[in-house]
Amino acid sequence: MPPNPTPTAPSAPVSSISSLIPPAESAGAAPLLSVRDLQTSFPLRSALLRRVVGEIQAVAGVSFDIPAGGTLGLVGESGSGKSTVARTIIGLEKARSGSIVFEGEELTSLPKASMRRVRRQLQMIFQDPYASLNPRATVEQIISEAWEIHPDVVPRNRHRAEVRDLLERVGLNPDHAKRYPHQFSGGQRQRIGIARALALRPKLVICDEAVSALDVSVQAQVLNLLADLRRDLGLAYLFIAHDLSVVRHISDQVAVMYLGRVVETATQDELFQRPLHPYTQALLSAVPDPKPWTKPEREPIIIGGDVPSPADPPSCCRFRTRCWKAEDICAEQEPVLETRLDRHPTACHFATDLAGATR
Ligand SMILES: Nc1ncnc2c1ncn2[C@@H]1O[C@H](COP(=O)(O)OP(=O)(O)OP(=O)(O)O)[C@@H](O)[C@H]1O
After folding, report:
1. Could you count the other beta carbons within 10 Å of the beta carbon of residue 43?
2. 6, 115, 150, 242 - which has most CB atoms within 10 Å?
3. Which atom of ligand 1 is nearest to the CA of 85?
4. Are 77 and 256 in contact (CB under 8 A)?
5. 262 within domain boundaries
6. Atom 1 of ligand 1: nearest residue by CA position
7. Is position 139 within any domain?
8. Averaged pLDDT in 10-residue chunks for the chain of 359 residues
């Protein structure tokens, strides 16, 4: 297990994240993906002359590990920087600072040609399968496209048979390989997207809101498929969603993001049963109750105000402007993501165990 990173600049709190690595897998084995103090910014331009007038800190010091075969759920409201984390990992955005180590290789300084090789192992599934599938290509063409660039993975004479195998693996009829995306339902299209992501036999798949656009029953089927694929192929996932209930069923570990930072991280069980950060507690209190006829486990917590702009985030604790527990110290001292109440890493001066307090 790598040493815990030391807290660095006040703008980028990092601390003990060892709880992100389940003990059994961390013993001696390096994580498949290790992200340390990642920062990604975009220029803020004036509306009129498009001059750069500031900086949008979309990701402001994020750290986590994903072991081989593990799943990290990354959750947070819209605009918290989840997609930017994903896009930076696969090289679509440039990291401003920090480190991304995948299978022992530092990706932030990797030449483009080497990145192409690494990208084989690192695939992404997007929210809108229809927008990400070429409407004029057949399913067979869509899935086999990657093999044109990487012919060593599957030789041309094997394309048809491999496409059939992949379609079967994702629960689609292999005889439909010559059909076009519009001939499939939303859930089926997402399965095509999954088959395409699997074509290069990746080790890590980043699912960016991969089931958010689907009906609840279809969501469950696709989540089950992803869980089966993980078990059968040993895949690891970075599973991004704004909906905590979606993340719950697929993740071993969960990291909660707010305005570019991870504010709490724990095992799935721990996070759902005993959230410590006020933001996580509020997010969880908004998850619909699966048994509405029983007494609710938690009173709903309403977060006041709007999400501040990442171009001008609140100093020190970024959540303090919307937090019902905030006090002067929250504007004076950066809360570091560290193990609190003997439990799991949380970045809050006033972390409390609501569950523990009420039991
Ligand atoms: N290319 C870009 N140029 C400028 N700002 C950007 C760009 N991409 C993202 N942002 C800004 O960075 C912040 C984080 O966006 P991001 O899409 O990563 O958040 P998110 O948590 O994934 O939200 P969503 O679920 O809505 O995509 C937002 O304020 C967004 O407006």
Report:
1. 12
2. 242
3. 18
4. no
5. yes
6. 42
7. no
8. 37 38 51 97 88 93 96 94 96 96 95 89 86 91 92 92 96 96 93 95 95 88 94 96 89 96 95 94 80 62 84 95 93 93 91 62
- Residue 158 within a domain: no
- Domain extent for 262: 18-121+202-274
Measured by CA distance, the residue closest to atom 18 of ligand 1 is 81
Give the CATH number for residue 85: 3.40.50.300
Q: How many domains does the chain have?
A: 1
